[in-house]
Amino acid sequence: MEFSTQTSASLHQIKTAALAVGVFADGVLGNAADIIDNASGGAIRDVLKAEFTAKPNTHLVLRNLPGVAAARVILVGLGKQESYNAKVHAGAEQAFANYCAQARLSEGVSTLASIDCPDTTLRSRAQACAIAAGQAVYRYDATLGKKDSKDQPKLKKITVHVPRAQAAQAQQGLAAGRAIANGMQLARKLGDLPGNVCTPTYLGNTAKELAREFKSLSARVLNTKQIEALKMGSFLSVAKGSSQPPAFIELKYQPAGTRGAKSAKAPIVLVGKGITFDAGGISLKPAANMDEMKYDMCGAASVLGTMRAVAELELDQPVVALIPACENLPSGLANKPGDVVTSMSGQTIEILNTDAEGRLVLCDALTYAERFRPAAVIDVATLTGACVVALGHVNTGLFSKDDELAESLLKAGRTANDPAWRMPLDDAYQEQLRSSFADIANIGGPPAGSVTAACFLSRFTEKYRWAHLDIAGTAWRSGKDKGASGRPVPLLVQFLQDQA
Ligand code: BES
Ligand code: MN
Ligand code: ZN
Fold first, then answer.
1. How remote is the CA of residue 356 from the centroid of ligand 1, in Å?
2. pLDDT tens digits, residue range 51-81?
3. What residue owns the CA closest to ligand 1's atom 6?
4. What is the residue with the minimal CA distance to atom 5 of ligand 1?
């Protein structure tokens, strides 16, 4: 996808297949809509009265307007002007991009980013436009026998129309948005691939491919023997229940010119849960919807997608991605309830439920992260069904004892339209993890399940600033539009851009 800016003053003379103009409720026209209305002798105001109430996420297509060069003018609803915000703007860009993709247009021009909007900048609005376009053209077809070419969008180019003085800002936003969209597409594809294709080895190969594509990235994939040598007894206890070999993936991003430099900034470490299928193990999950547990590697997928974006953007901030990848299956070698394992940290863990495996693989990756002397560590995991109960599919659960780190992540989520909500992490919850047979139990009972999962991880993160993102509710959509969302790539890339 190609993105560019247009700054010509005469909107009505722009030749394009589709020109998006924003309209607020109660007949309030955005600047671009007003210009097109005047040029066409009131064509927009005419339809507003009768046919278009400008609710958010709606649009109306007007063709062949007199005095207007664009083949179609797409009126995009922005809702009431007083409640216009970043989310409504992003939804408007998405409505336009979806229309262009579905109508199989090859290009379009959006004026939506030029409309002022509280708590946004032109840069962030241009970024939202590029992300929307990238999302609109994503199609999963890797395992379809009949690849339906009729469904393939042709959209190749989106142009944003902005005031000349702000073109540079818009360009920056578009570049960031394109990188984020590419990262999201990678994350969505990895998530959507079935468990028999997207294995731990496949994730490792994906990291190696990224390192081949970008000079700034280097990949190392550790095998069972090497993982054993690191004494990752907790991670390995989950992995040994499956015939698929585990992989411990390390993907490093080093900004250009800083390789080998002693004075380089401390890296930010991203840790992604890479359970490529979670059957629950001996604590087997019920059959209904178990297929969705192929998405249990979406933490890993979003971390890989984020690394791709970071490399494309050439951010001035070192980043390390760590992914413990394996399957969680029942077998004669699998963990059993009551088993005690020793983690890389030396702490012993009583496994009371083999389905609480995410924390068992993450804890060893979190201990491994210490060796990078990180500025901060952020883990991303489809960790608990309880987080879905608490926050649904809207907000990612954010857990951190570090107020400053938590606030930066929340802010990044707001800026990038990929919201998170802070959850508690009080020491009082730690008591639920007490075990008579080990240093810690791997479950804390039904109350506050997403919090006790985070508490478990916190025991392995005492040597650095740390935050945990539970994406169980936000990483994919269920139902008839089942599919990976690409979240929280926008939040993570925004956060890293803000640090750089
Ligand atoms: N991968 C699941 C969490 C999950 C469940 C994500 C449903 C999305 C939808 C995780 O490994 C798991 O099974 N967690 C258990 C923990 C419990 C045994 C304490 C859960 O949430 O039920
Ligand atoms: Mn599980
Ligand atoms: Zn899981």
1. 6
2. 999 999 999 999 999 999 999 999 999 999 9
3. 472
4. 385
Does 382 sit in the ligand 1 pocket, CB within 6 Å? yes
* Selection from 434, 460, 488 nearest residue 359 by Cα: 460
Ligand 1 centre to CA of 346 (Å) is: 25
Query: Which CATH number, 3.40.630.10, 3.30.360.10, 3.40.30.10, 3.40.50.300, labels domain 184-499?
Result: 3.40.630.10
For residue 288, give every residue at least 6 positions away whose Cβ sits within 8 Å of its Cβ, in sequence order, or none.
none
Q: Which of 384, 396, 450, 451 to mutate for ligand 1's pocket (most ligand atoms within 8 Å of CB)?
A: 384
379 lines ligand 1 (CB under 6 A): no
* pLDDT mean over 79-94: 97
Catalytic residue set: 285, 359
Average pLDDT of the residues in 426-446: 98
Q: What would the mean pLDDT of 474-480 be, rounded to a whole number?
A: 96
Q: pLDDT (tens digit, 9 = 90+) per residue, 389-409?
A: 999 999 999 999 999 999 999
> How confident is the model over 255-273, as pLDDT tens digits?
998 766 666 799 999 999 9
* Atom number of ligand 1 nearest to Cα 382: 6
Kindly list the domain boundaries of the chain, sorted by start residue. Answer: 2-161, 184-499
pTM of the model: 0.97
| Amino acid found at 488 | P
Q: What is the pLDDT of residues 271-320, one digit of tens each?
A: 999 999 999 999 999 999 999 999 999 999 999 999 999 999 999 999 99
Q: Does domain 2-161 have CATH number 3.40.220.10?
A: yes
> Considering only CA atoms, which residue is closest to atom 17 of ligand 1?
356
**pLDDT at residue 262 in the model:** 61
Q: Do 28 and 115 meet the contact criterion of CB atoms below 8 Å apart?
A: no
